[in-house]
Amino acid sequence: MSPTELPHPVTPAWVADAVFYQIFPDRFARSGRVTGLNLQPWGSPPTIHGYMGGDLWGVAEHLDHIQSLGVTAIYFCPVFQSASNHRYHTHDYFQVDPMLGGNDALRHLLDEAHARGIRVVLDGVFNHASRGFFQFHDLLEQGEASAYRDWFHVEGWPLHAYDDTRPANYQAWWGIRALPKFNTANPAAREFLLSVGEYWVRFGIDGWRLDVPNEIDDDDFWREFRRRVKAINPDAYIVGEIWGDAHRWLAGDQFDAVMNYHFARPCLGFFGARTLNHAVSEASGMGRVDPMDAPAFARRIGEVTRMYHPEIVRAQLNLLDSHDTARFLTAAGGDATAFRLASVFQMTYVGAPCIYAGDEVGLPGGPDPDCRRAFPWHDEASWDRGTLEMLQKLTAARHAAPALRRGELRFTHAEGEALVYARELEEQAAYVALNAAQAAARLPLTGVRPGPYRDALSGQPYNLGGDTELDVPARGALVLVPA
Q1: Which residues contact 425 (CB under 8 A, 6 or more apart)?
Q2: 321 flagged as catalytic
Q3: Full set of structural domains in the chain with CATH
Q4: Catalytic: which of 206, 211, 370, 417?
Q5: pTM strictly above 0.85
Q6: What is the pLDDT of residues 227-256, one digit of tens each?
Q7: What's the rounded Cα separation, in Å, for the pair 294 and 433?
Q8: Average pLDDT rounded to a whole number, residues 168-190
Q9: Cis, peptide link before residue 167, omega less than 30° from 0
Q10: Residue 483 in contact with residue 461, Cβ under 8 Å?
Protein backbone atom coordinates (compact mmCIF):
# COMPACT_ATOMS: atom_id res chain seq x y z
CA MET A 1 0.00 0.00 0.00
CA SER A 2 1.45 3.35 -1.00
CA PRO A 3 1.37 6.34 1.37
CA THR A 4 -1.42 7.99 -0.68
CA GLU A 5 -3.63 4.89 -0.20
CA LEU A 6 -3.43 5.00 3.58
CA PRO A 7 -6.41 6.24 5.61
CA HIS A 8 -6.28 10.00 5.46
CA PRO A 9 -4.48 11.30 8.55
CA VAL A 10 -5.47 14.63 10.07
CA THR A 11 -2.70 16.92 11.30
CA PRO A 12 -2.92 20.42 12.81
CA ALA A 13 -3.35 22.88 9.94
CA TRP A 14 -1.08 25.49 11.56
CA VAL A 15 2.02 23.30 11.45
CA ALA A 16 2.43 23.52 7.65
CA ASP A 17 2.64 27.30 8.02
CA ALA A 18 4.92 27.31 11.06
CA VAL A 19 8.58 28.14 11.53
CA PHE A 20 9.91 26.38 14.64
CA TYR A 21 12.75 27.34 16.95
CA GLN A 22 14.34 24.74 19.24
CA ILE A 23 15.54 25.91 22.65
CA PHE A 24 17.74 24.01 25.12
CA PRO A 25 16.59 25.96 28.21
CA ASP A 26 19.75 25.92 30.35
CA ARG A 27 21.76 27.45 27.52
CA PHE A 28 19.48 30.04 25.93
CA ALA A 29 19.20 33.06 28.25
CA ARG A 30 19.76 33.75 31.95
CA SER A 31 17.34 36.35 33.35
CA GLY A 32 18.98 36.85 36.75
CA ARG A 33 15.60 36.37 38.43
CA VAL A 34 16.52 32.89 39.71
CA THR A 35 19.21 33.44 42.35
CA GLY A 36 21.28 31.52 44.88
CA LEU A 37 22.64 29.00 42.39
CA ASN A 38 26.11 27.63 41.71
CA LEU A 39 26.39 28.34 37.99
CA GLN A 40 29.08 28.07 35.37
CA PRO A 41 30.06 31.32 33.66
CA TRP A 42 27.74 32.06 30.75
CA GLY A 43 29.42 31.00 27.54
CA SER A 44 32.00 28.74 29.19
CA PRO A 45 32.65 25.39 27.45
CA PRO A 46 29.59 23.17 27.98
CA THR A 47 29.98 20.13 30.18
CA ILE A 48 27.91 17.03 30.84
CA HIS A 49 27.33 18.16 34.44
CA GLY A 50 26.82 21.66 35.74
CA TYR A 51 24.47 24.47 34.82
CA MET A 52 24.73 27.81 33.02
CA GLY A 53 21.42 28.98 34.41
CA GLY A 54 19.25 29.71 31.42
CA ASP A 55 15.60 30.04 32.47
CA LEU A 56 12.15 30.63 31.01
CA TRP A 57 12.08 34.22 32.21
CA GLY A 58 15.15 34.72 30.03
CA VAL A 59 13.37 33.22 27.03
CA ALA A 60 10.48 35.63 27.55
CA GLU A 61 12.93 38.53 27.64
CA HIS A 62 14.25 37.55 24.21
CA LEU A 63 10.96 36.99 22.42
CA ASP A 64 11.70 40.07 20.29
CA HIS A 65 14.73 38.26 18.83
CA ILE A 66 12.74 35.07 18.29
CA GLN A 67 9.86 36.93 16.64
CA SER A 68 12.24 38.94 14.43
CA LEU A 69 13.50 35.62 13.07
CA GLY A 70 10.01 34.84 11.76
CA VAL A 71 9.46 32.10 14.34
CA THR A 72 5.86 31.09 15.02
CA ALA A 73 6.45 28.09 17.31
CA ILE A 74 9.04 27.15 19.94
CA TYR A 75 10.00 23.57 20.78
CA PHE A 76 11.61 23.31 24.19
CA CYS A 77 13.85 20.51 25.38
CA PRO A 78 12.50 19.30 28.77
CA VAL A 79 11.54 21.93 31.32
CA PHE A 80 10.33 19.77 34.23
CA GLN A 81 12.15 19.43 37.53
CA SER A 82 15.30 17.38 37.14
CA ALA A 83 18.84 16.97 38.44
CA SER A 84 20.47 17.38 35.04
CA ASN A 85 21.13 20.36 32.81
CA HIS A 86 19.29 18.70 29.90
CA ARG A 87 16.36 17.62 32.13
CA TYR A 88 15.75 14.29 30.46
CA HIS A 89 16.03 12.85 34.02
CA THR A 90 12.57 13.89 35.23
CA HIS A 91 11.94 14.25 38.99
CA ASP A 92 8.49 15.83 38.90
CA TYR A 93 6.32 15.86 35.79
CA PHE A 94 3.94 18.45 37.20
CA GLN A 95 6.53 21.07 38.17
CA VAL A 96 8.64 23.21 35.88
CA ASP A 97 12.17 23.14 37.28
CA PRO A 98 12.64 25.90 39.89
CA MET A 99 15.94 26.74 38.16
CA LEU A 100 13.88 27.62 35.08
CA GLY A 101 11.52 29.78 37.12
CA GLY A 102 8.89 27.19 38.01
CA ASN A 103 5.33 26.98 36.76
CA ASP A 104 4.90 30.75 37.06
CA ALA A 105 7.66 31.34 34.51
CA LEU A 106 6.05 28.93 32.05
CA ARG A 107 2.70 30.61 32.56
CA HIS A 108 4.27 34.00 31.85
CA LEU A 109 6.13 32.69 28.82
CA LEU A 110 3.03 31.05 27.35
CA ASP A 111 1.01 34.23 27.76
CA GLU A 112 3.74 36.38 26.20
CA ALA A 113 4.38 33.95 23.35
CA HIS A 114 0.70 33.45 22.58
CA ALA A 115 0.17 37.21 22.53
CA ARG A 116 2.73 37.31 19.69
CA GLY A 117 1.18 34.40 17.82
CA ILE A 118 3.96 32.02 18.87
CA ARG A 119 2.99 28.51 19.92
CA VAL A 120 4.90 26.44 22.48
CA VAL A 121 5.63 22.69 22.28
CA LEU A 122 7.17 20.87 25.24
CA ASP A 123 9.34 17.76 25.38
CA GLY A 124 7.60 14.72 26.85
CA VAL A 125 9.90 12.13 28.40
CA PHE A 126 7.54 9.24 29.08
CA ASN A 127 9.72 6.20 28.44
CA HIS A 128 11.84 6.70 31.55
CA ALA A 129 12.03 8.81 34.70
CA SER A 130 14.99 9.34 37.04
CA ARG A 131 16.37 8.01 40.30
CA GLY A 132 14.95 11.15 41.90
CA PHE A 133 11.41 10.51 40.63
CA PHE A 134 9.33 10.02 43.76
CA GLN A 135 7.83 6.66 42.82
CA PHE A 136 11.23 5.22 41.92
CA HIS A 137 12.77 6.72 45.05
CA ASP A 138 10.09 4.91 47.06
CA LEU A 139 11.18 1.71 45.35
CA LEU A 140 14.78 2.33 46.42
CA GLU A 141 13.70 3.03 50.00
CA GLN A 142 11.09 0.28 50.41
CA GLY A 143 12.37 -2.44 48.13
CA GLU A 144 9.87 -5.22 47.45
CA ALA A 145 7.38 -3.55 49.80
CA SER A 146 7.18 -0.40 47.66
CA ALA A 147 3.71 0.63 46.59
CA TYR A 148 5.22 1.53 43.20
CA ARG A 149 7.15 -1.67 42.60
CA ASP A 150 5.23 -2.53 39.44
CA TRP A 151 5.65 0.94 37.91
CA PHE A 152 9.09 -0.22 36.76
CA HIS A 153 10.73 -3.32 35.30
CA VAL A 154 12.36 -4.97 38.32
CA GLU A 155 14.47 -8.00 37.47
CA GLY A 156 15.88 -8.89 40.87
CA TRP A 157 16.63 -7.72 44.39
CA PRO A 158 18.20 -5.71 45.82
CA LEU A 159 18.33 -2.77 43.40
CA HIS A 160 21.67 -1.07 42.82
CA ALA A 161 20.86 2.37 41.45
CA TYR A 162 24.29 3.92 42.17
CA ASP A 163 26.75 1.02 42.43
CA ASP A 164 28.06 0.27 38.95
CA THR A 165 29.98 -2.77 40.21
CA ARG A 166 26.72 -4.66 40.79
CA PRO A 167 23.77 -5.44 38.54
CA ALA A 168 21.15 -2.70 38.56
CA ASN A 169 18.35 -5.30 38.66
CA TYR A 170 15.95 -3.00 36.82
CA GLN A 171 15.54 -1.95 33.22
CA ALA A 172 16.84 1.47 32.27
CA TRP A 173 17.15 3.44 29.05
CA TRP A 174 20.23 2.09 27.25
CA GLY A 175 21.21 0.53 30.58
CA ILE A 176 21.86 3.95 32.15
CA ARG A 177 20.92 3.49 35.81
CA ALA A 178 19.95 7.14 36.17
CA LEU A 179 17.04 6.53 33.76
CA PRO A 180 14.74 3.75 35.07
CA LYS A 181 12.24 2.66 32.43
CA PHE A 182 8.53 2.90 33.14
CA ASN A 183 6.37 -0.20 32.97
CA THR A 184 3.62 1.30 30.83
CA ALA A 185 1.70 -1.98 31.02
CA ASN A 186 0.97 -1.14 34.65
CA PRO A 187 -2.43 0.65 34.73
CA ALA A 188 -1.40 3.14 37.45
CA ALA A 189 1.88 4.10 35.75
CA ARG A 190 0.11 4.31 32.41
CA GLU A 191 -2.62 6.57 33.78
CA PHE A 192 -0.02 8.77 35.46
CA LEU A 193 1.81 9.40 32.20
CA LEU A 194 -1.37 10.01 30.23
CA SER A 195 -2.50 12.49 32.89
CA VAL A 196 0.77 14.40 32.44
CA GLY A 197 0.05 14.70 28.73
CA GLU A 198 -3.40 16.08 29.51
CA TYR A 199 -2.34 18.41 32.32
CA TRP A 200 0.06 20.56 30.35
CA VAL A 201 -2.22 20.81 27.32
CA ARG A 202 -4.90 22.12 29.68
CA PHE A 203 -2.25 24.48 31.08
CA GLY A 204 -1.95 25.94 27.61
CA ILE A 205 0.92 24.29 25.71
CA ASP A 206 0.35 23.67 22.01
CA GLY A 207 1.77 20.19 21.67
CA TRP A 208 4.29 17.54 22.63
CA ARG A 209 7.60 16.45 21.19
CA LEU A 210 7.94 12.86 22.38
CA ASP A 211 11.35 11.61 23.47
CA VAL A 212 12.35 8.11 22.25
CA PRO A 213 8.67 7.10 21.84
CA ASN A 214 9.61 3.97 19.88
CA GLU A 215 10.97 2.54 23.14
CA ILE A 216 7.45 2.45 24.54
CA ASP A 217 6.66 -0.55 22.35
CA ASP A 218 2.91 -0.21 22.75
CA ASP A 219 0.81 1.37 20.01
CA ASP A 220 -2.29 1.39 22.21
CA PHE A 221 -0.49 3.63 24.70
CA TRP A 222 0.25 6.19 22.01
CA ARG A 223 -3.25 5.89 20.53
CA GLU A 224 -4.69 6.68 23.95
CA PHE A 225 -2.19 9.51 24.41
CA ARG A 226 -3.37 11.03 21.14
CA ARG A 227 -7.05 10.64 22.03
CA ARG A 228 -6.54 12.29 25.43
CA VAL A 229 -4.46 15.20 24.12
CA LYS A 230 -6.62 15.88 21.07
CA ALA A 231 -9.80 15.76 23.18
CA ILE A 232 -8.49 18.82 25.04
CA ASN A 233 -6.97 20.62 22.05
CA PRO A 234 -7.62 19.14 18.59
CA ASP A 235 -4.93 21.48 17.21
CA ALA A 236 -2.21 20.17 19.54
CA TYR A 237 0.86 18.97 17.64
CA ILE A 238 2.26 15.53 18.48
CA VAL A 239 5.72 14.96 16.98
CA GLY A 240 7.86 11.94 17.76
CA GLU A 241 11.61 11.54 17.92
CA ILE A 242 11.95 8.69 15.44
CA TRP A 243 15.24 8.60 13.56
CA GLY A 244 14.37 5.74 11.19
CA ASP A 245 11.26 4.50 9.41
CA ALA A 246 8.22 5.88 11.23
CA HIS A 247 5.31 4.39 9.27
CA ARG A 248 4.18 2.46 12.34
CA TRP A 249 3.44 5.69 14.22
CA LEU A 250 2.21 7.80 11.30
CA ALA A 251 -0.98 6.04 10.24
CA GLY A 252 -3.04 8.89 11.65
CA ASP A 253 -3.85 7.29 15.01
CA GLN A 254 -0.65 8.09 16.94
CA PHE A 255 1.68 10.97 15.96
CA ASP A 256 1.12 13.88 13.59
CA ALA A 257 4.73 13.80 12.40
CA VAL A 258 8.31 13.04 13.42
CA MET A 259 11.59 14.91 13.64
CA ASN A 260 12.78 14.60 10.06
CA TYR A 261 16.34 13.33 10.30
CA HIS A 262 15.79 11.78 6.84
CA PHE A 263 15.74 15.39 5.64
CA ALA A 264 18.79 16.51 7.61
CA ARG A 265 21.23 13.88 6.33
CA PRO A 266 20.99 14.56 2.58
CA CYS A 267 21.12 18.31 3.25
CA LEU A 268 24.44 17.81 4.99
CA GLY A 269 25.66 15.46 2.26
CA PHE A 270 24.87 17.85 -0.61
CA PHE A 271 25.37 21.35 0.75
CA GLY A 272 28.35 20.36 2.88
CA ALA A 273 29.81 17.92 0.35
CA ARG A 274 33.12 19.74 -0.08
CA THR A 275 33.93 20.22 3.59
CA LEU A 276 32.26 17.36 5.50
CA ASN A 277 33.79 16.58 8.89
CA HIS A 278 33.09 12.86 9.03
CA ALA A 279 34.47 12.39 12.52
CA VAL A 280 32.07 14.96 13.95
CA SER A 281 29.00 13.41 12.32
CA GLU A 282 29.99 9.87 13.19
CA ALA A 283 30.46 10.81 16.84
CA SER A 284 26.92 12.20 17.04
CA GLY A 285 23.53 10.85 16.13
CA MET A 286 23.82 11.54 12.41
CA GLY A 287 26.23 8.70 11.72
CA ARG A 288 28.37 8.73 8.59
CA VAL A 289 27.15 11.14 5.92
CA ASP A 290 28.74 10.82 2.48
CA PRO A 291 28.97 13.62 -0.11
CA MET A 292 26.14 13.82 -2.65
CA ASP A 293 25.80 15.58 -5.99
CA ALA A 294 22.62 17.34 -7.10
CA PRO A 295 21.03 14.35 -8.89
CA ALA A 296 21.56 12.09 -5.86
CA PHE A 297 20.20 14.79 -3.57
CA ALA A 298 17.10 15.31 -5.70
CA ARG A 299 16.48 11.55 -5.81
CA ARG A 300 16.82 11.19 -2.05
CA ILE A 301 14.69 14.24 -1.26
CA GLY A 302 12.09 12.89 -3.67
CA GLU A 303 12.04 9.66 -1.67
CA VAL A 304 11.75 11.59 1.60
CA THR A 305 8.91 13.70 0.21
CA ARG A 306 6.98 10.58 -0.86
CA MET A 307 7.81 8.57 2.25
CA TYR A 308 4.58 9.30 4.13
CA HIS A 309 1.07 10.52 3.37
CA PRO A 310 1.15 14.11 2.01
CA GLU A 311 -0.73 15.35 5.08
CA ILE A 312 2.06 13.93 7.28
CA VAL A 313 4.80 15.34 5.05
CA ARG A 314 3.32 18.83 5.41
CA ALA A 315 3.54 18.46 9.20
CA GLN A 316 7.08 17.04 9.41
CA LEU A 317 9.56 18.88 11.66
CA ASN A 318 12.40 19.56 9.22
CA LEU A 319 15.65 20.14 11.07
CA LEU A 320 19.28 20.56 10.04
CA ASP A 321 20.64 19.78 13.52
CA SER A 322 19.52 19.55 17.13
CA HIS A 323 20.71 19.21 20.73
CA ASP A 324 21.48 15.55 19.91
CA THR A 325 23.77 16.16 16.93
CA ALA A 326 26.76 18.26 16.06
CA ARG A 327 25.76 21.68 14.74
CA PHE A 328 25.32 21.63 10.96
CA LEU A 329 27.96 24.35 10.65
CA THR A 330 30.55 22.22 12.45
CA ALA A 331 29.55 18.98 10.70
CA ALA A 332 30.06 20.87 7.42
CA GLY A 333 33.61 21.75 8.42
CA GLY A 334 32.79 25.30 9.48
CA ASP A 335 31.57 26.36 6.03
CA ALA A 336 28.91 29.03 6.62
CA THR A 337 27.85 28.87 2.97
CA ALA A 338 26.88 25.22 3.45
CA PHE A 339 24.56 26.14 6.30
CA ARG A 340 23.12 29.07 4.36
CA LEU A 341 22.39 26.98 1.28
CA ALA A 342 20.85 24.24 3.41
CA SER A 343 18.71 26.87 5.12
CA VAL A 344 17.47 28.12 1.77
CA PHE A 345 16.36 24.60 0.95
CA GLN A 346 14.92 24.03 4.44
CA MET A 347 12.83 27.22 4.28
CA THR A 348 11.51 26.47 0.79
CA TYR A 349 10.76 22.75 1.29
CA VAL A 350 7.55 20.98 2.31
CA GLY A 351 6.86 20.81 6.06
CA ALA A 352 7.78 22.90 9.08
CA PRO A 353 11.40 24.16 9.24
CA CYS A 354 13.03 24.14 12.67
CA ILE A 355 15.98 26.37 13.60
CA TYR A 356 18.11 25.20 16.53
CA ALA A 357 18.74 28.27 18.70
CA GLY A 358 22.18 29.68 17.94
CA ASP A 359 22.35 28.46 14.36
CA GLU A 360 21.02 31.80 13.17
CA VAL A 361 24.11 33.60 14.49
CA GLY A 362 26.68 31.01 13.42
CA LEU A 363 27.15 29.27 16.77
CA PRO A 364 29.39 26.21 16.24
CA GLY A 365 29.34 22.98 18.21
CA GLY A 366 30.58 19.42 17.96
CA PRO A 367 28.97 16.30 19.42
CA ASP A 368 27.18 16.41 22.79
CA PRO A 369 27.84 18.31 25.01
CA ASP A 370 29.55 20.79 22.68
CA CYS A 371 26.37 21.18 20.58
CA ARG A 372 24.73 22.62 23.70
CA ARG A 373 26.76 25.83 23.98
CA ALA A 374 25.23 28.93 25.56
CA PHE A 375 23.62 31.41 23.18
CA PRO A 376 26.22 34.19 22.72
CA TRP A 377 24.21 37.14 24.04
CA HIS A 378 27.45 38.07 25.83
CA ASP A 379 29.40 38.23 22.57
CA GLU A 380 27.33 39.82 19.81
CA ALA A 381 30.54 40.69 17.98
CA SER A 382 30.83 36.98 17.16
CA TRP A 383 27.45 36.82 15.46
CA ASP A 384 27.26 35.90 11.80
CA ARG A 385 25.02 38.79 10.78
CA GLY A 386 24.90 37.60 7.18
CA THR A 387 23.33 34.30 8.18
CA LEU A 388 20.92 36.01 10.58
CA GLU A 389 19.72 38.48 7.95
CA MET A 390 19.38 35.74 5.34
CA LEU A 391 17.21 33.64 7.64
CA GLN A 392 15.01 36.64 8.38
CA LYS A 393 14.50 37.17 4.64
CA LEU A 394 13.76 33.49 4.08
CA THR A 395 11.18 33.22 6.86
CA ALA A 396 9.53 36.44 5.68
CA ALA A 397 9.31 35.03 2.15
CA ARG A 398 7.88 31.76 3.46
CA HIS A 399 5.18 33.56 5.43
CA ALA A 400 4.32 35.83 2.49
CA ALA A 401 4.17 33.14 -0.22
CA PRO A 402 1.65 30.33 0.35
CA ALA A 403 3.34 28.33 -2.43
CA LEU A 404 6.52 28.04 -0.31
CA ARG A 405 4.51 26.56 2.55
CA ARG A 406 1.88 24.44 0.86
CA GLY A 407 2.81 24.10 -2.80
CA GLU A 408 3.74 20.84 -4.49
CA LEU A 409 7.49 20.30 -4.93
CA ARG A 410 8.78 19.73 -8.47
CA PHE A 411 12.47 19.45 -9.34
CA THR A 412 13.18 20.85 -12.80
CA HIS A 413 16.99 20.68 -12.90
CA ALA A 414 19.56 18.68 -10.96
CA GLU A 415 23.02 18.52 -12.47
CA GLY A 416 26.48 18.62 -10.90
CA GLU A 417 26.19 21.02 -8.00
CA ALA A 418 23.12 22.88 -9.26
CA LEU A 419 19.50 22.39 -8.28
CA VAL A 420 16.33 24.14 -9.50
CA TYR A 421 12.80 23.43 -8.31
CA ALA A 422 9.29 24.84 -8.23
CA ARG A 423 6.73 25.06 -5.45
CA GLU A 424 3.31 25.22 -7.10
CA LEU A 425 -0.02 25.93 -5.41
CA GLU A 426 -3.10 26.46 -7.58
CA GLU A 427 -2.42 29.66 -9.52
CA GLN A 428 0.65 30.68 -7.53
CA ALA A 429 4.20 29.42 -7.79
CA ALA A 430 7.67 30.10 -6.42
CA TYR A 431 10.98 29.03 -7.92
CA VAL A 432 14.33 28.28 -6.28
CA ALA A 433 17.72 27.98 -7.97
CA LEU A 434 20.61 26.73 -5.83
CA ASN A 435 24.23 26.79 -6.93
CA ALA A 436 26.53 24.84 -4.61
CA ALA A 437 29.52 25.23 -6.93
CA GLN A 438 32.51 27.49 -6.33
CA ALA A 439 31.82 29.49 -9.48
CA ALA A 440 28.78 31.43 -10.66
CA ALA A 441 26.42 29.47 -12.91
CA ARG A 442 23.67 30.16 -15.41
CA LEU A 443 20.78 27.87 -14.47
CA PRO A 444 17.63 26.97 -16.44
CA LEU A 445 14.14 27.74 -15.19
CA THR A 446 11.49 25.83 -17.12
CA GLY A 447 7.73 26.17 -17.22
CA VAL A 448 7.64 29.37 -15.18
CA ARG A 449 4.18 30.80 -14.76
CA PRO A 450 4.16 34.29 -16.32
CA GLY A 451 4.31 37.25 -13.98
CA PRO A 452 6.45 39.57 -11.91
CA TYR A 453 8.74 37.97 -9.34
CA ARG A 454 11.35 39.15 -6.92
CA ASP A 455 14.34 37.39 -5.39
CA ALA A 456 13.60 37.18 -1.68
CA LEU A 457 17.33 37.27 -0.88
CA SER A 458 18.51 40.21 -2.98
CA GLY A 459 15.24 42.01 -3.62
CA GLN A 460 15.94 42.08 -7.37
CA PRO A 461 12.80 42.12 -9.54
CA TYR A 462 12.22 39.75 -12.47
CA ASN A 463 9.51 39.53 -15.11
CA LEU A 464 9.41 35.87 -16.07
CA GLY A 465 7.40 33.34 -18.02
CA GLY A 466 7.99 30.04 -19.80
CA ASP A 467 11.60 28.90 -20.12
CA THR A 468 14.55 31.09 -19.23
CA GLU A 469 18.02 31.09 -17.71
CA LEU A 470 19.24 33.11 -14.74
CA ASP A 471 22.67 33.79 -13.26
CA VAL A 472 23.16 32.41 -9.77
CA PRO A 473 26.20 33.40 -7.66
CA ALA A 474 28.78 30.88 -6.51
CA ARG A 475 27.58 29.11 -3.35
CA GLY A 476 24.40 31.15 -3.72
CA ALA A 477 20.70 30.99 -4.49
CA LEU A 478 17.72 32.75 -5.98
CA VAL A 479 14.35 32.45 -4.23
CA LEU A 480 11.79 33.82 -6.67
CA VAL A 481 8.43 34.65 -5.15
CA PRO A 482 5.47 36.53 -6.67
CA ALA A 483 6.12 40.28 -6.53
Answers
A1: 402, 403, 406, 407, 408
A2: no
A3: 3-127+182-400 (3.20.20.80), 406-482 (2.60.40.1180)
A4: 211
A5: yes
A6: 999 999 999 999 999 999 999 999 999 999
A7: 12
A8: 98
A9: no
A10: yes
